[in-house]
Amino acid sequence: MKKYAYFLFIIFFIISCFEEKNSKKKLNSFNNKEISDIEKITKKIRNNPKNSSLFSERAKLFFKNNEINKAINDINIALKLDSLNANFYIELSEYELIKGQSGKSKDILEKCIRIYPNHKDVNLKLGQIYLYVKDYKKSIKFFNKVQKICEKEEKINFKEIAEIYFFKSIIFEETKDTTKAIKNLQIAMENNPKYYEAISKIAFLYMKKRPEIAIEYYKKAMEIIPKSIEVHYNLALIYQNQKKFPEAIEKYNFIIENIDSSYYQAFFNIGFINSEFLNKNKIAIENFTKAIKFNKNYVSAYYRRGSCFEKIGNQKKAKKDYLKAMEILPNYSKSIEALNALENKNRTIE
Fold this sequence. Notes:
Number of strands: 0
Number of helices: 19
Structural class: mainly alpha
Radius of gyration: 26 Å
CATH class of the largest domain: Mainly Alpha
CATH topology of the largest domain: Serine Threonine Protein Phosphatase 5, Tetratricopeptide repeat
Largest sheet: none
Helix content: over 70%
Oligomer: single chain
């Protein structure tokens, strides 16, 4: 069974990438190597037109090159040649889901499950599809079935069982049952103590109400992936909310210095701490300027920098930043209010 811990995220990501690439409609879809690979398989198909695996292989190449309809056509041919191949059903369902056809994707897997009711990967995929369309009752039914299949295997794969509990935790989280979500994540961790996704997820769920527990879980996650932006950023947020500003700034700087020097959210949050809590407005201006450097449309950064300029008496630059924020987001209330207050202040002085 393949690893599906981030199945939903991957699906959303691939769909967005597919749509973005498809909208460009480039004339030269393939590079030379890819053309060569497709031509080679096409020649093999001509010599052996009843070889279903060749059509599946070419479908994968078409998909890789954003030719989703050609991929679907090829895998459908493969299925006509071998209607009992479960992997072909899975492949076709994935293409249809990525194309946005969740109903077709589900129907394809339902057809396969009637042929192979105890096929582990097909049951898992159906659980994921129903999770994707938010049919939680059916989703958990298939996840439970996969769990039973895994537990009956001669050699139990505890990592697979951990992933099932991870998916079930998503269901409980989305249905607002945080207690059960955490319980399932804990069982996932028992089956796979180095399951980063489960550890970081349970830390996230504890962030608001039990930050001290969240910190311990994030430290565990950090042992597995030392340079995880997610872990260091969320730890910084916890420290920031606890008003432990040196610790928070240290974490934000770790991200900038060791992981991603263009991580504008870290620059912004350092600036926020310096301006709102430490009264270091000149330093905060530098922080917000760096955030803007890496995100030219960062509305909040323009507003915050404008506020800092106003605090140090530079009304001209403050007004310029407020106006810039409103140029990007015309209804941005904070900038509108700040600009009005600034103009009223100037009228009073006059």
